[in-house]
């Protein structure tokens, strides 16, 4: 009897674990455009993806008291890799524990096909709004988030997408914002390819595309970031304020780049508290 009880407990635990999230293909009938990547998709020991050609969203539904809010998360990785775990699923699980549906986007890596990642964000936003009632989400409380190059993708969505694809708020971690002088050059070249035009630089320099319709934005970064200059966030913040967009920016004294949900980041608990407080301030939770 005791042996059967132990087996039952293990089965119940496994069942609960396996139901933590749901993965949905963005394009059930297959993608209509190719990013040209032929190598097999790889999920490595660091908890990230390479060679992504088949995009998905992974949904962590809100637990406990559901606030109705949802956040679509774009992991970073210089547009050549996706740090899916510490900049994606760990954040999504924390959000779910606080009554916010966390949704991680595994977007197609561009491989120089510049429009493809944004197409995936647009498809994801529309899919979330279409299924918002079924997933317990308020269709007017759907934000977008991202870290580093994923922050650039999220910010591009917030400054370029319209109608039912436009996010209601943005949470950006140490984002690449500009494609100008102070950009992260690897992200720029991986997105745009070898032939970079002035038109592309202007289009993807998101600080130049802030308008009165840009959603409220929270920026989180470190002063000693040597990978993406903090001026990226500062310039975006200034553009937001020029357009009277509610915005907050927290620049932590140290931590460098790429900390995501790493508990080794000295301000791990603080950024979480600040994020929840900000979401309450803008009435998303």
Beta-strand content: 15-25%
Roughly how many Å apart are the termini?
47 Å
How much is the average pLDDT?
A: 94
Q: Main sheet, how many strands, which sense, barrel? A: 8 strands, mixed
Q: Residue ranges: pLDDT <50 for 5 or more in a row?
A: 1-19
- Please give the order of strands in the largest beta sheet: 1-4-6-5-7-8-9-10
* Number of discrete helical segments: 8
Q: Based on DSSP secondary structure assignment, what is the total number of beta strands?
A: 10
> What gyration radius follows from the Cα positions, in whole Å?
19 Å
Please bin the fraction of helical residues: 25-40%
Q: Structural class, please?
A: alpha/beta
* N-to-C series of helices and strands: HEEEEEHEHEHEHHEHEH
Describe the global form: globular
């Amino acid at each position: 009897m005791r042996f059967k009880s132990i087996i039952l407990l293990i089965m119940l635990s496994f069942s609960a674990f396996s139901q933590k999230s749901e993965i949905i293909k963005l394009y059930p009938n297959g993608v209509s455009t190719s990013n040209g990547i032929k190598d097999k998709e790889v999920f490595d020991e660091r908890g990230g993806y390479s060679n992504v050609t088949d995009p998905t969203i992974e949904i962590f539904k809100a637990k406990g008291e559901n606030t109705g809010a949802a956040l679509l998360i774009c992991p970073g990785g210089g547009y050549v890799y996706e740090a899916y775990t510490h900049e994606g699923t760990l954040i999504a699980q924390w959000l779910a524990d606080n009554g916010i549906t966390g949704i991680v986007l595994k977007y197609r890596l561009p491989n120089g096909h510049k429009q493809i990642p944004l197409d995936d964000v647009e498809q994801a936003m529309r899919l979330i709004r279409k299924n918002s009632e079924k997933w317990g989400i308020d269709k007017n409380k759907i934000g977008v988030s991202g870290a580093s190059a994923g922050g650039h993708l999220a910010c591009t969505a917030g400054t370029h997408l319209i109608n039912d694809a436009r996010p209601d708020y943005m949470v950006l971690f140490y984002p690449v914002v500009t494609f100008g002088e102070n950009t992260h050059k690897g992200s720029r070249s991986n997105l745009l390819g070898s032939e970079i035009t002035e038109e592309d630089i202007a289009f993807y320099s998101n600080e130049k595309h802030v308008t009165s319709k840009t959603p409220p934005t929270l920026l989180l970064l470190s002063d000693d970031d040597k990978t993406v200059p903090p001026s990226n966030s500062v310039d975006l913040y200034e553009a937001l304020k020029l357009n009277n967009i509610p915005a907050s920016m927290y620049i932590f004294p140290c931590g460098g780049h790429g900390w995501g949900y790493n508990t080794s980041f000295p301000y791990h608990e603080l950024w979480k508290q600040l994020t929840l407080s900000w979401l309450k301030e803008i009435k998303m939770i």
